[in-house]
Every structure is written in structure tokens, then in C-alpha cells.
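Researcher: I'd like a structural prediction for the single chain below. Treat it as a standalone chain; there are no partners to consider.
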Amino acid sequence: MNAPGERKVVLVTRRTRLDELLVRHHTLEQARFYIEHLDADFSDYLRESAAYAQSLRVAVEALASWGRYQLLDRAYLTNFVFARDDIVVALGQDGLVANTMKYLEGQPLVGVNPEASRWDGVLLPFAPSELGSLIRDVASDRRPTKDVTMAEARLSDGQRLRAVNDLFVGPRSHTSALYEIELGERHESQSSSGLIVSTGLGSTAWLKSIVTGSWGIADALVGRTSKHAYRPQPWDANRLTFAVREPFPSRASAAELVYGHITREQPLKLRSRMPESGVIFSDGIESDYLRFTAGMEATITIAETRGRLVV
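Model: Treating it as a single chain, here is the predicted structure.
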């Protein structure tokens, strides 16, 4: 094990909206023309990019004073191998923290907010100016961390995919997801627009919208206006929650096993009946997916590794 001052820090960055525009349109003027043609405020893109660049400069200066560090663009996360004693820093937004955490094996992860006036940053408690002292504290185990339960999908061919917020299982396009679903002793064939599996951290996001919409529809159908108290799960909850989106009952498909909880002792099992377009992706990153086509089986359960978020 390296001494604290020798530990490497990996700084994970992301492209700004302006960076993405320049990739598409090649020049600043062409990007400006495109945005202003849509009656949007191009100066906001410039302000965001400038703020991120300034935060990156501050972060890099702090890491240069520390010693060993490496910059890593989010696009290369899937193929990057982190050392066991790395300290990892994600320079916001929240989605970057989640997308980074699922590739770690328990390394401490620091979320840094590049522009506090723009991003609320639930997972970004630190400012770039705090990074210098913060890294020293983390390296010396003087900073508390918060455990985060992750979900994991394991395919019958050995492939795996983790999720910090949620997994989506279904079609890549607006077609029906066809699959067999099994939880404990319950089993049925379903046709739906897909299903999600949420962690405790993700229970405040996509899952909440699905549950809230379902309550609203049910109340409208029966003429109630009751208020429902939705309670998200803790970040370190020892269970996952699944919800089926728009299940369609027919002669060939049922719609009863549409919501429930997953534990290590009782995983969720799925068998695809989608000939071409079936996928599993996590945390809203559709480009990082597993093919889930006819005959493939997926077991979804709690990941053995937990995330460690520095707080």
C-alpha cells in the first residue's frame, strides 16, 4: 500500500454543452448560429463552459500540488482500470458521480460542484477550492464516507452491468418489451414498455415519477383526490425496488407482477423474448448497455460492491 502522499487521484471530467455543440458543428460561430436559430440563449452556453473551465483549473492546481493525478474523460470510464488505492474525484453534475461510482470497487469518490449557482448537486457537496485539503483528509482516512447500495444485472453469458440509480430493461425504441419475469414463486409472461429497478439513491428519481403517475391515474379512475406520502429508501438500503412500466394484459401476457422488492436472497429473474431490440442500461446512459435479446436470461440483484461517497 502506498503512503497517503503517493496515492493517485483520478479526476473524472465531462464535456459541457458547448463542447458537445463544437463536436457537432466544428466552429464556435456555427454552434452560435444553430442555437440562436432556435431562439435559445447562446451566452448561457458560454457562461457554463467558462465556469467549468475555471473549476477545472482550480481542481488541477490542487491536484498538481498533491502529486500523482490523472485526468479522465467520462467517455473512457467503461475501459479504464482504477487502482485499488486510487482516490476518485468527479467534477459534476450528479449524473457524473453516479456514472463514475458504478465502475469503482470501493474506492472513495468525491463529488465536486463546478458551478453551485447552476447545479443543486445532491451528490456534489464540495467546491473546487476545497479539493486540496480534502484530498489530504481522504488519503489519511479523516473524512467520513456514505455507503451507497448498487444494483447489478448479470446475464447468462457472463456479462454484468451495475447501476447506482436504476437499471432499465426493455426495448431501445418505442416498441413492446417482451419477456418472462420471475420473483420467488411468482412467474408470468409480460408485454410492457419495459421495467426499471431502482436503488435507494435512485428511489427519489425515476421510480418516484412512476409511482406518482400510477397513483394519479388510479385516483382519477376511482374519483379520489387523496394525497399519498411517497417515502424513498435510504441510500444504503438492503433491497432494490422494481416497477413495470405500462404493462399490457392479453391472452399471451399478464400484468400482476408489476411492483416489488429485490434482495440478495430473492433476486429478480428475466428471460427476454425480444428478437432484436432488447437492452439493459443503467443510470440513463443508453450508450453503455447490454444486449438482452431472445433467449438471454438476466438475474438482477444487489451488487456485492458498495459505493463510497465522501461526505
